[in-house]
Design a protein that fits this description.
Strand 2 (about 35-40) and strand 3 (about 45-55) form a beta hairpin. This protein has helices at about 15-25, 105-120, 135-140, and strands at about 10, 35-40, 45-55, 55-60, 75-80, 85-90, 95, 95, 100, 125-130, 155, 160-165. The longest helix has 18 residues, at about 105-120. About 20% of the residues lie in helices and about 30% in strands.
């Protein structure tokens, strides 16, 4: 709450957004999907709008009221196909560090949990899901990724699943 009484809105992390796209991609193998409910690392559920059809889904990163979030408005895409177990793969636009995808452990667990929920809902045994960020390489130039050794795209982050609002009046 600001001093003038206005409320600031939380957003979602890249991890929550990627998890929403991943869940929607798996669900869309069996049915039409326009929003998903998914767990967050904070233990709360989030509901995000998605566009999903035939195993391909996208979700738009909502930064909430955090004007300096470079990833706000960015599209995250997930493509799923049936598989024997759960496989999550980083595609184009997701950075890497020392050859490993820049997907932190907490959001990776969140993505896996969201995919497990989708598998339960669809009755499928497993899914191979590739997550990509079409504008990830360009957006990464506006982040600190290069300074910490991440190249080729953005990081998938999020310890709580939410982006806290920020306003210059709070600083």
């Amino acid at each position: 709450v600001l001093s003038d009484g206005s409320l600031l809105r939380r957003g979602f992390t890249t991890g929550t957004t990627a998890a929403a796209a991943a869940k929607a991609s798996v669900l869309s193998l069996k049915k039409s999907v326009s929003k998903v409910s998914l767990p967050t690392p904070a233990g709360l559920r989030a509901i995000l709008p998605v566009i999903a059809k035939n195993g391909k889904a996208s979700a738009i990163k909502d930064a909430g009221d955090h004007a300096s979030d470079a990833t706000g408005g960015m599209e995250i895409v997930a493509e799923a196909r049936e598989h024997d177990n759960i496989v999550i793969k980083a595609g184009p636009g997701i950075g890497s560090k020392k050859g490993m995808p820049a997907i932190n452990p907490s959001p990776l667990r969140q993505i896996e949990e969201a995919v497990k929920e989708a598998l339960t809902e669809t009755g499928l045994k497993g899914a191979f899901v590739t997550i990509s960020v079409p504008t990830g390489e360009e957006i990464a130039k506006k982040t600190l990724n290069g300074q910490v050794g991440i190249t080729g795209g953005i990081s998938i982050l999020g310890t709580t699943g939410f982006v806290d609002p920020w306003n210059e009046h709070l600083g």
